Amino acid sequence: MNTRSIRFRLTVWYAALLAGLLLVFGATSYFGLAGYLEWSLKDSLENQAQQIAVSHLADVGLTGEDYVIEEIKEHYAPEINSRFVRVTRGDGSVLYVSGIPEDQSFDPTGLGASTLDGDEPHTREVHLPDDKGDLLLYTMPFTARDGSRYTIETGAPFDAIESVLRGLLFTLALGMPVMIVLSIAGGYFVMRRALEPVNALTRSAERITSSNLGERLPVVNTGDELERLSIAQNNMVGRLDAAFTHIRRFSADASHELRTPLTVLRGELEELAQQSKLPEDSRERIGSALEETERLSRIVESLLVISRLDAGEARMEKKRFDFAELTAATVEQMRLLAEDKGISLVSDVEGSVEVEGDSARLKQVVVNLLDNAIKYTPPDGKVETKVRRNGGFAILEVKDTGIGIPAEALPHVFERFYRVDKARSRAVGGTGLGLAIVRSICAAHGGDVTVESQEGRGSLFQVKLPIVAHD
Ligand SMILES: Nc1ncnc2c1ncn2[C@@H]1O[C@H](COP(=O)(O)OP(=O)(O)OP(=O)(O)O)[C@@H](O)[C@H]1O
Ligand SMILES: [Mg+2]
After folding, report:
1. Which of 17, 166, 239, 356 has the greatest number of C-beta atoms within 10 Å?
2. Is 433's C-beta closer than 6 angstroms to any atom of ligand 1?
3. Is it true that domain 319-466 has CATH number 3.30.565.10?
4. What is the CATH architecture of 225-310?
5. What whole-number distance in Å separates Cα of residue 52 and Cα of residue 142?
6. Could you tell me the distance, in angstroms and rounded to a whole number, from the CA of residue 252 to the centre of ligand 2?
7. pLDDT one-digit tens code per residue, 229-272
8. pTM, rounded to two decimals
9. For ligand 1, is residue 413 a contact (CB within 6 Å)?
């Protein structure tokens, strides 16, 4: 998982935000509920004390204390309802006190006599001795109609509140991680869908190179930022395409324009060289100028070929022919050149391998590769040529036992004007355009060319061309 991806980072942010919000929400609910429960318990204790006072104790002078006790038991049944009720006379003696409730939630036996700060009713929390529970205790002074004074106390255990709060805490502790995990999973999934167009754009953008600038990225019709991005990228590719076309056309035009003056120059020089009146020295110089001009012409010709092929402007014949036969014939034509250098030329060309294309240009491919192989192989070496069929492709292999190409130079040998050893190549007459032509011709035929080489051991060039299916 890529932790720097937008998808991962957004999911983490989103999960962290959600966790924070859930925590705030959980804390608010917890403390809110705690406050409310305590308040409502207090309120109910207060009501109960008021009722005891007003409904039962007010007329104690008329009804008698036993009646009051019976009434409290009957109406409030503190032991059954887990409540604590105590009524104390003004002299401190107890009129009524409830016992241990049935559910044993607390034991009030150890609860000391109540104290009243002044004559104000108040609520307090009492921790019963010997760990017998916690009570919320409401204490209220009361004067009956006959003037006798009492203190009424009502209490209830905290336990109930605590167990509700514990329940809430448990639910939150269990629910929050589940919600967070679910939201992470959901977010990750949603994010994948949202970012899928980005992946599609990336994949298409990676496919576009200088050779297929005519292609465009898919426009995602989402109406959002991604659609704008894809349109903007397409416009950019369009501008690049125009710029590339301009450059290609420029080199083609430049080479083309150079041809005529060069031809004229060559003609003039040739004529000059033939004039016998000239001193020997001048004739030699003219000869050397002529040689350089011829070299220049070759370069310009080659450049023109490459530029036109790359610009897709070259007129190419589309004809079916036997590539194996063409190769075999070319090898025979080059045999003399090889033998001059003492190199043995082996050709292993079996059967017929039909391809469709421009045979003159494809012959150029074989010539250039063989020329290199012979040029860069010392005497007594060997150059092998093979043509075979492999799946839907015709494969041409030219293998030599020559000087090889250093690893760092391998990626560049198909570039224009690239020569591994400039001084040496110039001595053997190379311009560094031979392989560039090979590559352009192969590309124009929908094929490609690759090289493997080891310095000092030899090289293997492999050309792959789509073959014509026999129908
Ligand atoms: N078979 C080979 N063995 C060793 N080096 C090679 C071989 N083929 C090509 N090279 C290297 O790759 C470079 C480029 O080859 P390319 O054919 O493009 O140019 P060139 O042979 O120098 O000149 P040109 O073919 O234009 O006359 C060569 O200069 C040479 O250094
Ligand atoms: Mg060459």
Report:
1. 356
2. yes
3. yes
4. Orthogonal Bundle (1.10)
5. 10
6. 21
7. 889 989 999 999 999 888 888 888 999 999 999 999 999 999 98
8. 0.62
9. yes
